[in-house]
Design a protein that fits this description.
7 strands; single chain; alpha+beta; 8 helices; two-stranded antiparallel sheet
């Protein structure tokens, strides 16, 4: 009788990682084991269980809904961009038809109020006010020397090159909108020329979220370039 011990078989524990790696390396596994696929059930958030196939269908539906929402958002953005492009086009035509500085200023004001729906707007030009006697100063049009001390609240903006959007400081709102200052919830400042060489356009909204730092400023930049180009003719 032999006293030699037989080697014991040690079963290697199959980890979840091993199973996951195997299924990833063999994507056709469930095609070869269709019955197993139909018998597998996954716990559901409602407390019941669903088959793996049903789970996959549910995930695909959720993915489809997400894609539909993204597509809807893209369509809305495209429509908004089309609308802005049309408004800028109409504004361009009006400015091209302006015969002098007064009609140019009037065209800009009309575009701000009608096409772009601005609750309040102010066009500030830098220069000697006595040289603009052919234009009556009003709520929209303002001429001021570039080094005027009342422009100090705009110092940071005037040193930059791009539009600024967001909540306006009290001193900025009072300078621009006077008695209507308290109505301004948000503000867009648009430079006219490099570092506001000509002046700037201020667009105020009652809506505190209308203009904010995270918004796209492309169309505001285009409007600024367009207005600056039109004013340089005079």
């Amino acid at each position: 009788m032999s006293t030699q011990r037989k080697p014991e078989l040690v079963e290697e524990e199959i980890s979840e990682r091993v199973v996951s790696d195997y299924l990833e390396a063999n994507p056709d596994f469930f095609e070869r084991h269709g019955a197993l696929l139909n018998s597998l059930h996954i716990p559901h958030g409602t407390g019941g269980a669903v088959s793996l196939v049903e789970r996959q269908v549910s995930l695909l539906r959720q993915k489809e809904l997400k894609l539909q929402r993204q597509l809807k958002e893209l369509i809305e953005v495209a429509r908004a961009n089309d609308s802005l492009s049309e408004k800028i086009h109409l504004m361009t035509l009006e400015l091209l038809g302006a015969r002098d500085l007064p009609t140019t200023v009037a065209a800009v004001e009309q575009a701000m109020r009608s096409s772009f729906g601005a609750d309040h707007a102010v066009l500030v030009l830098f220069g000697d006010p006595s040289l603009f006697g052919d234009i009556t100063p009003g709520r929209f049009f303002r001429v001021i020397e570039r080094d005027d001390a009342t422009l100090q609240p705009f110092e940071t903006f005037l040193k930059g090159n791009g539009p600024r959007c967001g909540q306006a400081r009290d001193s900025q709102r009072i300078f621009l909108f006077h008695g209507d200052a308290d109505e301004i919830g948000s503000l867009a400042l648009v430079p006219l020329g490099n570092k506001s060489a000509i002046g700037f356009l201020a667009i105020g909204s009652h809506d505190a979220d209308r203009f904010h730092p995270g918004m796209s400023i492309d169309y505001l930049s285009r409007v600024g370039d367009l207005v600056a180009g039109a004013l340089k003719r005079y």
